[in-house]
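[job 0412] stage=complex_fold ligand=tetrahydrodeoxyuridine status=START
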Amino acid sequence: MEQAYAPYSDFRVGAALRGADGSISIGCNVENAAFPAGFCAERAAVAGAVSRGVRQFTHLVIATEADAPTPPCGMCRQMFVEFDAAGDLEILSVTRDGARAQWRLADLAPAPFTNTSLAHHS
Ligand code: THU
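[job 0412] stage=complex_fold status=DONE, emitting C-alpha coordinates
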Protein backbone atom coordinates (compact mmCIF):
# COMPACT_ATOMS: atom_id res chain seq x y z
CA MET A 1 0.00 0.00 0.00
CA GLU A 2 2.84 2.39 0.80
CA GLN A 3 4.22 1.94 -2.73
CA ALA A 4 0.87 2.38 -4.51
CA TYR A 5 0.83 4.86 -7.38
CA ALA A 6 -2.60 6.41 -7.01
CA PRO A 7 -2.35 10.16 -7.79
CA TYR A 8 -5.82 10.27 -9.37
CA SER A 9 -7.98 8.44 -6.84
CA ASP A 10 -5.71 8.93 -3.82
CA PHE A 11 -6.93 5.44 -2.82
CA ARG A 12 -3.86 3.38 -2.12
CA VAL A 13 -4.16 -0.39 -1.99
CA GLY A 14 -1.72 -3.15 -1.16
CA ALA A 15 -2.27 -6.85 -1.72
CA ALA A 16 -0.40 -9.92 -0.49
CA LEU A 17 -1.17 -13.28 -2.04
CA ARG A 18 -0.08 -16.50 -0.36
CA GLY A 19 0.71 -19.35 -2.73
CA ALA A 20 0.04 -23.00 -1.94
CA ASP A 21 3.85 -23.33 -1.81
CA GLY A 22 4.00 -20.79 1.04
CA SER A 23 5.33 -17.96 -1.11
CA ILE A 24 3.98 -14.42 -0.70
CA SER A 25 3.51 -12.26 -3.78
CA ILE A 26 2.70 -8.59 -3.28
CA GLY A 27 1.14 -5.90 -5.44
CA CYS A 28 -0.14 -2.35 -5.33
CA ASN A 29 -2.46 -0.34 -7.53
CA VAL A 30 -0.81 1.54 -10.37
CA GLU A 31 -2.89 4.29 -11.96
CA ASN A 32 -2.49 6.12 -15.26
CA ALA A 33 -3.54 9.46 -16.80
CA ALA A 34 -5.54 7.31 -19.24
CA PHE A 35 -7.66 6.02 -16.36
CA PRO A 36 -8.65 2.54 -17.65
CA ALA A 37 -4.99 1.66 -18.18
CA GLY A 38 -4.45 1.52 -14.41
CA PHE A 39 -4.70 -1.74 -12.51
CA CYS A 40 -5.57 -2.98 -9.05
CA ALA A 41 -3.23 -4.21 -6.33
CA GLU A 42 -4.80 -7.66 -6.40
CA ARG A 43 -4.14 -8.25 -10.09
CA ALA A 44 -0.61 -6.91 -9.69
CA ALA A 45 -0.07 -9.57 -7.02
CA VAL A 46 -1.49 -12.28 -9.29
CA ALA A 47 0.85 -11.21 -12.09
CA GLY A 48 3.81 -11.45 -9.72
CA ALA A 49 2.80 -14.89 -8.46
CA VAL A 50 2.18 -16.35 -11.90
CA SER A 51 5.46 -14.86 -13.11
CA ARG A 52 7.28 -16.85 -10.43
CA GLY A 53 5.41 -20.03 -11.38
CA VAL A 54 2.77 -19.96 -8.62
CA ARG A 55 -0.80 -20.60 -9.75
CA GLN A 56 -2.47 -21.94 -6.62
CA PHE A 57 -3.36 -19.56 -3.83
CA THR A 58 -4.62 -20.01 -0.28
CA HIS A 59 -4.96 -16.49 1.14
CA LEU A 60 -5.25 -12.91 -0.08
CA VAL A 61 -4.80 -9.90 2.20
CA ILE A 62 -5.91 -6.45 1.05
CA ALA A 63 -4.79 -3.29 2.87
CA THR A 64 -6.29 0.15 2.33
CA GLU A 65 -6.62 3.48 4.12
CA ALA A 66 -10.42 3.35 3.93
CA ASP A 67 -12.48 3.62 7.14
CA ALA A 68 -13.97 0.18 6.58
CA PRO A 69 -12.43 -2.94 5.01
CA THR A 70 -13.09 -3.11 1.28
CA PRO A 71 -13.63 -6.22 -0.85
CA PRO A 72 -11.89 -6.73 -4.22
CA CYS A 73 -13.55 -5.28 -7.33
CA GLY A 74 -15.40 -7.45 -9.82
CA MET A 75 -12.54 -7.63 -12.28
CA CYS A 76 -10.20 -8.92 -9.56
CA ARG A 77 -12.79 -11.45 -8.34
CA GLN A 78 -12.96 -12.76 -11.91
CA MET A 79 -9.17 -13.01 -12.07
CA PHE A 80 -9.08 -15.09 -8.89
CA VAL A 81 -11.86 -17.36 -10.17
CA GLU A 82 -9.51 -18.31 -13.02
CA PHE A 83 -7.13 -19.91 -10.52
CA ASP A 84 -9.70 -21.09 -7.96
CA ALA A 85 -12.89 -22.25 -9.62
CA ALA A 86 -13.99 -23.85 -6.33
CA GLY A 87 -13.83 -20.48 -4.62
CA ASP A 88 -11.76 -21.64 -1.65
CA LEU A 89 -9.45 -18.60 -1.59
CA GLU A 90 -9.64 -16.87 1.81
CA ILE A 91 -9.80 -13.09 1.38
CA LEU A 92 -8.99 -10.82 4.32
CA SER A 93 -9.31 -7.04 4.09
CA VAL A 94 -7.74 -4.75 6.67
CA THR A 95 -7.58 -1.04 7.46
CA ARG A 96 -4.94 1.05 9.19
CA ASP A 97 -7.13 1.10 12.31
CA GLY A 98 -7.14 -2.67 12.44
CA ALA A 99 -10.69 -3.25 11.21
CA ARG A 100 -11.02 -6.56 9.36
CA ALA A 101 -13.45 -8.32 7.08
CA GLN A 102 -13.13 -11.81 5.65
CA TRP A 103 -14.77 -13.70 2.81
CA ARG A 104 -14.29 -16.82 0.74
CA LEU A 105 -13.95 -16.14 -2.97
CA ALA A 106 -17.13 -18.17 -3.54
CA ASP A 107 -19.02 -15.66 -1.33
CA LEU A 108 -17.92 -12.77 -3.54
CA ALA A 109 -18.23 -14.57 -6.90
CA PRO A 110 -21.14 -17.01 -6.42
CA ALA A 111 -21.96 -17.57 -10.11
CA PRO A 112 -18.65 -17.15 -11.91
CA PHE A 113 -17.85 -17.37 -15.60
CA THR A 114 -15.14 -20.05 -15.90
CA ASN A 115 -13.34 -22.11 -18.51
CA THR A 116 -16.22 -24.62 -18.35
CA SER A 117 -18.55 -21.80 -19.38
CA LEU A 118 -16.43 -21.44 -22.53
CA ALA A 119 -16.77 -25.19 -23.21
CA HIS A 120 -20.49 -24.71 -23.85
CA HIS A 121 -19.72 -22.64 -26.93
CA SER A 122 -20.48 -24.56 -30.13
N1 THU B 1 -8.31 -0.65 -6.29
C1 THU B 1 -7.49 -1.68 -5.97
O1 THU B 1 -6.29 -1.67 -6.26
N2 THU B 1 -8.03 -2.74 -5.33
C2 THU B 1 -9.29 -2.79 -4.85
O2 THU B 1 -9.66 -3.75 -4.20
C3 THU B 1 -10.23 -1.69 -5.13
C4 THU B 1 -9.73 -0.65 -6.04
C5 THU B 1 -7.72 0.54 -6.89
C6 THU B 1 -8.10 0.84 -8.30
C7 THU B 1 -7.86 2.34 -8.34
O3 THU B 1 -6.47 2.58 -8.54
C8 THU B 1 -8.20 2.82 -6.94
O4 THU B 1 -8.11 1.67 -6.13
C9 THU B 1 -9.58 3.44 -6.81
O5 THU B 1 -10.56 2.60 -7.31
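Strands lie at 13-19, 24-28, 57-64, 90-95, 100-104.
[job 0412] exit 0
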